[in-house]
Design brief:
Layout: H1 55-116, H2 122-142, E1 147-148, E2 160-166, E3 176-181, E4 183-184, E5 194-199
Parallel strand pairs: 2-5
Antiparallel strand pairs: 1-4, 3-5
Length: 202
């Protein structure tokens, strides 16, 4: 039988040339190039940019925002409270000043009346002035500042201020002999101590 030359099979793949050991094959252009491995890709976990923040971080962020909001509200409430207390204190001071001034108005009225009758009997004028003085002392006592002008009492450095020392045989040493300027008030509510002279010790 005659033999015909066989045509090469077109479907058969091209012969592959052997690649030297250690040399890499050139990448094909129609396949994606492999990149560096992502963290967690080896064990099947998604990468950091595969999803949004973890739920725990969202809870922490929300809690921090709530705490900051509470803190700001507390600061605002404290500032409003401080301003309100300042206003109330100023109002109380104004009321107290007004009450104290009003208590002295009758004293001024009597002084004006005494000046109006300055040409009358001098003895009556002196009695009127003394009555006005007693009225002013009574007002101070009602305000919490009693008058201290006692003699013959032991010297008290909390209530007396020594302005002189005298030798008086009739007075025990260390006692108040004369009050040159009365004092008003006691303890922490003292307006001023009494200026006195004290009997000298032998």
């Amino acid at each position: 039988m005659p033999t015909y030359p066989q045509e090469p099979d077109r479907a058969a793949p091209d012969p592959v040339e052997p690649v030297p050991e250690g040399a890499g094959r050139p990448p094909r252009g129609d396949l994606p190039q492999p990149g560096p491995p992502r963290p967690g890709a080896a064990n099947g976990e998604p990468g950091p940019d595969a999803a949004g923040p973890a739920p725990a971080e969202d809870e922490y962020t929300t809690a921090i925002r709530e705490l900051e909001d509470r803190w700001r509200r507390a600061l605002a409430d404290l500032d409003n409270l401080r301003k309100r207390h300042v206003r109330e204190l100023e109002r109380e001071r104004a009321v107290e000043r007004s009450r104290t001034a009003a208590a002295f108005l009758p004293v001024l009225d009597n002084l004006e009346l005494a000046l109006t009758h300055a040409g009358a009997d001098p003895g009556a004028i002196v009695e009127g002035i003394r009555a006005v003085r007693d009225q002013a002392v009574n007002v101070l006592e009602l305000l919490g500042y009693p008058r201290h002008a006692e003699t013959g009492v032991p010297f008290d450095p909390a209530r007396h201020e020594v302005v002189g020392v005298v030798q008086d045989p009739d007075a025990p040493p260390g006692t108040v002999v004369e009050v040159l300027r009365p004092g008003y008030g006691d303890g922490e509510r003292q307006l001023r101590p009494a200026a006195v002279t004290v009997a000298k010790r032998e």
